[in-house]
Amino acid sequence: MDEKNINIDKLIITDRKTISLEINNKGNLIVRAPKYASKDRILNFVFSKFDWIKDKQGKAIEKNNEKNQFYENKILFYGREIEIIYQKGIDKVLVLNNNKLIINEDYINQSKEIIKYWLKKNAKTYLNYRTEQLATKYNFTFNKLRISNAIHKWGSCNSKKNIALNWRLIMADKNLSDYVIIHELAHTLELNHSKKFWSIVENIIPNYKKIKYELRNISHLLDY
């Protein structure tokens, strides 16, 4: 088995009954296993999924490389490619001018943190405004909206009608973020993914399946 050369990057032991595998966006293998699962049982299961693991890891690494190359000198903002430029002598730390994000050269070493803060600030303003707007337009009611930093979720809604939306949605086309907002607003009526739930979504966004696919296809680039 060792010849297959699979590294378990993270092993999580819980009260679960089965073993599960996850490949994260960096290509790392995460294994979740029951408390009383022996080392041999875990390893046998992992190696039985060798082909699946290698395929998923290869795709994840390819997407991660594409993302890193993409972000060398640009970001996405409302689905548009914004060029990052460093400039001396500007009064502000950061200025958006058409499709150029101009950053004071004095802050070049902190640029990623500065850009992320700027994106989050814009996300909070826009997502709050747009959620209120769509809720009013389609007669939804919700309690609170929180801007989240979730890794794997674009949004969530609980039984108290509290909605969370991922700040990274500010990087996506507005029709994609609208889909996520409508998805979560629909959960205020149906807290599941039943046929009734999807009919609510489809009634507002007839082509939601296409948009859902587009969001999944670009999600690796929305991870700044």
Question: How would you summarize this macromolecular structure in one to three sentences?
Answer:
The chain is 41% helix and 21% strand. By secondary structure, the chain is of the alpha/beta class. It folds into two domains: 69 residues, no CATH class; 113 residues, Metalloproteases ("zincins"), catalytic domain (Zincin-like), CATH 3.30.2010.10.
Write the layout of secondary structure elements.
Elements: E1 10-14, E2 20-23, E3 29-34, H1 39-48, H2 50-70, E4 74-77, E5 80-87, E6 94-97, E7 100-104, H3 111-137, E8 145-148, E9 155-157, E10 163-166, H4 174-186, H5 195-204, H6 208-218
Parallel strand pairs: 1-3, 5-7, 8-10
Antiparallel strand pairs: 2-3, 4-5, 6-7, 9-10
Helix pairs in contact: 3-4, 4-5
Plain-language structure description:
Helix content is 41%, strand content 21%. It has a four-stranded mixed β-sheet with strand order 4-5-7-6, with helices on one face. A three-stranded mixed β-sheet has the order 1-3-2. It contains six helices and ten strands; from the N terminus they run E-E-E-H-H-E-E-E-E-H-E-E-E-H-H-H. The protein has helices at 39-48, 50-70, 111-137, 174-186, 195-204, 208-218; strands spanning 10-14, 20-23, 29-34, 74-77, 80-87, 94-97, 100-104, 145-148, 155-157, 163-166. It starts with 9 loop residues before the first strand and ends in a 6-residue tail after the last helix. It folds into two domains: 2-70, no CATH class; 109-221, Zincin-like, CATH 3.30.2010.10. With 224 residues, the protein is an alpha/beta fold. The mean pLDDT is 91.
